[in-house]
Amino acid sequence: MWIFESSTGEWFDPNGTFLVKGYAGGSCGKNPEGINNPKLQGEAKIGPLPEGLYTLGNLVLESHLGKFAISLVPDPSNNMMGRGDFYVHGDENKCYFPNRLVVG
User: Fold this and answer.
1) From CA 104, how far away is CA 102, in angstroms rounded?
2) How many domains, in total, are found in the chain?
3) What is the pLDDT of residues 32-60, one digit of tens each?
4) Helix locations, the chain, DSSP H
5) What residues make up the domain containing 79?
């Protein structure tokens, strides 16, 4: 299982090896208090995606999210707090951290 730590933005592979630091939440600078802040996970367009298990879904090429994105399919046991439509993608807009992975 791959792990994204929503409070730090750190990604780990199934062996527990650190891969990259990214971020989730913040609405591209409009709500910086939401970046990697799990206390705000229930706030759409502010906090990071809700904690839980996700499966990597479909690859999306050339969209508003950048050159590519991968959809995140929430596990039915997740409390999604009325939220959805999450993706893993690059920070094409360089909102916070150029060349970092974004989850959101």
Assistant:
1) 6
2) 1
3) 999 999 999 999 989 998 988 888 899 99
4) none
5) 3-103
